[in-house]
């Protein structure tokens, strides 16, 4: 059965690293041996040349070359053999200018012309080469032979047996291979160790599995309706999905940037950075109520999940308002029952005129209160909110008054945000008031100023900034939602309009909450154009 390519990442990396280590080791050994062989050849050639130069420097050799004939028992042959035996050369040949040998290892070659071309040496140049002759391949050195008058009378050629040169190289090869094998073994062990670590890091997965997991992760992160932000140990953003970008108001190039560059100082940045501890932490960002959970990772980073709880928070506040309205309706039910009993009694006594007058008086009182609000506040949502809150205030024994300075035309850009701001301010005022709450809504060109005051205990100066922080509250949380978000949401909405929210002291005791919302009202010209464009003048 033919073994296929392994699927696991660690096995593939191990094989690739072993192959690379083997290739690099083999290449290194080859690159080392190649110049070494050339260096050994060169050393042999230089040795042969040095021997030839020492023979040519002997003046006796030059005199005997001129004065004797080439014979096996001649003085030139004797001196050449003496030098050869002492230097372990393959041969020492002395020749005349015609190339005739006066000496040779093989005495039968004496008196014959040399087998290789001696012209370079006879022309006065030193020669080093690897060449083949009658005795086989050798490393050769050739030099000119000069007489006492410095005339060239012949040449000296010395050869070093090439097999000896190769033997030196072969003797070195085992040592080189031993070192190369040791390097290969170390490299293989290092590759095995790295593959084991990689196997633990990848849990034995294949490249295809990892690629599929990455694709699935991208699809999951950008498909879920929960924000996910991954941070590295230095607090830089590793990953942020589409929902987190939307909830935090981040741009598309958030990855790789620190939190301090992406988010303004505040609770949201503190929660993401881990400076606020706990689970299901509430924060407000971009006018949204978020629930954040932070989970540290093994490398010192963290993953933060964000859930949008704005709709739940609004539903909770509506539920609070509904409970208040129900309480007010129950109280008014008793009051209406008493009034009906009064009317019934007057009718049974036959006092019909008095009964009619009583009914008209009660109806006029209720109508006058609602009409006063409608005359001053021309935004239906806000006027309805004020009428409902007045009923709740009456049930609690608190008077909700509309300031004489109140005047709000029907030019509000987003009434829903104003309902959130005004409703939160009135709820807080009713909780703190002793007997009265006053509301002022005033338009100044395109700026809207909201002011809600109460005659309660007021807010100490040291707490006037802290009360606008998410999660801070002096009241017990209801079962269906948390406390400490109303005023934080008010401030964030004000900042979104480019305005501000603050609290101060009321003359005579109590607190005054002021919210300034620039550009919350459309200009008069734009409002007129919009009214003319909509049939019936409806907005």
Automatic annotation (TrEMBL):
InterPro entries: HATPase_C_sf, HATPase_dom, His_kinase_dom, PAS, PAS-like_dom_sf, PAS_fold, sCache_3, Sensor-like_sf. Its EC number is 2.7.13.3. GO terms for molecular function: ATP binding; phosphorelay sensor kinase activity. Residues 414-521 form the Histidine kinase domain. It is found in: Cell membrane. Keywords: ATP-binding, Cell membrane, Kinase, Membrane, Nucleotide-binding, Phosphoprotein, Transferase, Transmembrane, Transmembrane helix, Two-component regulatory system. Pfam families: HATPase_c, PAS, sCache_3_2, SPOB_a. GO terms for biological process: regulation of DNA-templated transcription. It is a multi-pass membrane protein. GO terms for cellular component: plasma membrane. The keyword Transferase applies. The chain crosses the membrane at residues 12-37, 169-193. It catalyses: ATP + protein L-histidine = ADP + protein N-phospho-L-histidine. Its main location: membrane. This is histidine kinase. It comes from Actinacidiphila rubida. The lineage of its organism: Bacteria, Bacillati, Actinomycetota, Actinomycetes, Kitasatosporales.
